Amino acid sequence: MTLSLLLSGKFDEYFTQSSADVPLWLFVHVPKTAGSSLTTELAGFLRPSYNIHIDRSDVARSYNERYDTAVADFIMQAKQRPFRFASGHILEYQTARIRNALPDVRLITMLRQPVSRLVSDYRYQRTPMHPNHEEFKKRLPTLSDYVELLGENNKMAKFLVPRPIVASEDEQACIDFIMHNYAFVGLQEMYPLCFQTLTMLLGKPSTPSVRKRVNEVTEENPLLLTPEIDRQIRILNRLDMAIYDAFLKRYKVIREALLEYVRSRRAEWAGLA
User: DSSP assignment of 94-156, as one string?
Assistant: First the structure.
């Protein structure tokens, strides 16, 4: 229940309970939530670290099957060599496998406003940063085509919440699961504050300095959102909207107090250095 301490403004209790005796932090990386930038910075000081990744050229198996293998490999290596930090685009059932095998792991993640996240995901996959971008552009020439893909809807919920709860479409159950199972949840729209909060939790308070895989506006990759598509995304991503709005509401209440707390604690740590 430690995340509820942070979001209710009980900062001293939160940092004391959440940072005690933690051997491994696992970042569940929902695509296009500033996760690449965050992972780079955290892996820089939480060592040894591990990137749970797949071979995207392996088309003989599905995406989930490849990640199942990657997760199994990580668990095997983590039992032989303890890691301090790991990250990956893993779904909840894969995260559950890690938690069952490595019960002392603590989960962290980042959320993003669902319309912005989905549009950014689509635009990213149209660029050379994505290995199969040419095939992607031919298969899904418009944003509307992408929005209507069943697998792309409620992606934050699918990454963070068990399948039966997602299938039930119970918004509060999704929110409750994340609140009870994650040690930290940040918002991309409050990235500097969330970054400072998280790094304080991890014992190295700092400000963000890395920006990776940022979509640039080009002729090939324009901003595509219209009011009609915005409404379509909100309707088809109702769970993600509910999850994001719940955390945004909580952060808005504590934002100024948390900012002041982080500033004062950083000043104290600097004075002791």
Answer: HHHHHHHHSTT-EEEEEE--HHHHHHHHHHHHTSTTSTTHHHHHHH--SHHHHHT-GGGTTHH
Please state, in angstroms and rounded to a whole number, the distance separating the CA atoms of residues 201 and 17.
10
Distance CA 212, CA 40 (A): 9
State the pLDDT confidence band at 139, using cuts at 50, 70 and 90: low
Strand pairing class (85-88; 49-52)? parallel
Closest CA to 186 of 38, 59, 71: 38
Contact 126, 136 (CB under 8 A): yes
pLDDT tops 60 at residue 96: yes
Q: Is the pLDDT of residue 55 over 80?
A: no
pLDDT digits 0-9 by tens, 231-246: 999 999 999 999 999 9
pLDDT at 173: 98
**25 in helix, strand or coil?**
strand
Mean pLDDT calculated for residue range 97-119: 95
On whether residue 149 sits in a domain, the answer given is no
The count of domains in the chain is 1
Domain ranges, residue 6: 2-115+161-217+239-272
174 located within any domain: yes
DSSP of 53-90? ---TT--SS-HHHHHHHHHHHHHHHHHHS--SEEEE--
> Residue with structure tokens 């939790």?
201
Report the distance separating Cα 186 and Cα 192, nearest Å.
10
Say whether pLDDT at 145 is over 60: yes
- Centre a 10 Å sphere on the Cβ of residue 163 and count the other Cβ atoms it contains: 12
